[in-house]
Design a protein that fits this description.
This protein is mainly β and 313 residues long. It has a single domain (6-300), classed as Beta Barrel (Porin), CATH 2.40.160. The chain contains one helix and 18 strands. The chain has one helix at residues 6-19; strands at 51-59, 69-78, 84-95, 98-112, 118-132, 151-152, 156-166, 170-176, 183-187, 194-198, 202-209, 211-214, 217-228, 234-243, 247-254, 258-266, 271-280, 291-300. It has a 14-stranded antiparallel barrel with strand order 1-2-3-4-5-7-8-11-13-14-15-16-17-18. The termini are far apart.
């Protein structure tokens, strides 16, 4: 029977704990999820009748080695055929030695329910590349063969589905952005046995509404519910105030994880910039100084005679 050597398995165990085991939530999280809808719901593609590009950068648990770092770029637009919208999502998620890169294309078929509301059915298809860079980890035993090689999985295809219903003041959506449950790499630090853990299917429910509180003030609560088999349901709730159609100020809460402060500024009809800071409520809060998230979006107007700023969601 072999003896467990803690220094060998610690980096791998840390990465697996952060990424999630076979029964935990594995997809990246965003505090400004209300401006990153396309990454979780393909039905959102083209919903604003604009060509929109949005970039988000998230650094989680600042000061903790190997903490998650996520960058997301999304773009979507309606087509000349009014009933269709298309989009593209690229996500890079790094946790310790683990790198996960996703590239997905989206298409949405939109139905006009009435003069004020639309319903879209969306499809998402793309690839997922999962890699473990063990060679870059500092190891006590320089001759340990486990840390002399990288573990790389091939790009694996996936697809997803989403429904999105919206009006000028509110929205609700239901989606499963990755339906195929692929196996991922797992390494036993004591025996050097390489096996696989399964990437679980995630389900998302999103909703939000804009209330007019009077002159120059609007209130927009929103919620994101994430569910995966074997893990507690994760609930993100935010409350944002829009002042003079320019300044967004608000707070948010992620169940069992954090409280957040959010701010955004509508620079002009095209550009919006935002920032969020997360205050952790978990036992890890003693080992890091919080999480930061930046957002920048650009809207290209097709009809310059139509007032399109600001966008509420």
């Amino acid at each position: 029977m072999s003896t467990m050597r803690p220094y060998r398995c610690l980096p791998i165990l840390l990465a697996l704990l952060l990424v999630g085991s076979a029964s935990a939530q594995q997809d990246p999280m965003y505090t400004m999820y209300m401006w990153n809808t396309l990454s979780v719901n393909p039905g959102y593609a083209g919903s604003a009748d604009l060509f929109t590009v949005t970039g988000l950068a998230r650094q989680q648990w600042v000061g903790l080695d190997g903490a998650p770092s996520t960058q997301t770029l999304t773009a979507h637009t309606p087509l000349r055929m009014e009933s269709l919208g298309v989009g593209l999502s690229v996500v890079h998620d790094k946790v310790g030695p683990v790198n996960n890169t996703l590239a997905f294309a989206d298409i949405a078929y939109r139905i006009r329910v009435n003069e004020r509301a639309r319903l879209a059915f969306g499809l998402k298809a793309g690839v997922d590349l999962f890699q473990v860079n063990l060679g870059g980890i500092q190891n006590v035993d320089a001759n340990d063969p486990l840390f002399g090689q990288d573990l790389q999985a091939k790009a694996k295809p996936n697809f997803g589905f989403g429904m999105y219903y919206w009006t000028k003041k509110g929205y609700i959506g239901l989606s499963a952005p990755k339906l195929i449950e692929h196996d991922r790499i797992e390494v036993d630090g004591a025996t050097d046995v390489v096996s696989a853990i399964r990437q679980q299917r995630h389900y998302f429910l999103i909703a939000g509404y804009v209330f007019d509180l009077g002159r120059d003030v609007k209130f927009r609560p929103s919620v994101l519910v994430k569910a995966v088999e074997g893990a507690p349901i994760q609930l993100d709730v935010s409350a944002m105030f829009l002042l003079r159609e320019k300044f967004w100020l608000g707070v948010a809460h992620r169940s069992g994880d954090s409280f957040s402060a959010l701010i955004a500024y509508q620079i002009n009809d095209q550009f919006k910039v935002g920032y969020a800071y997360d205050f952790s409520t978990t036992a890890l809060r003693s080992y890091h100084s919080g999480s930061h998230e930046l957002m920048l979006s650009y809207d290209l107007r097709f009809n310059k005679e139509k007032t399109l700023s600001p966008r509420y969601f």
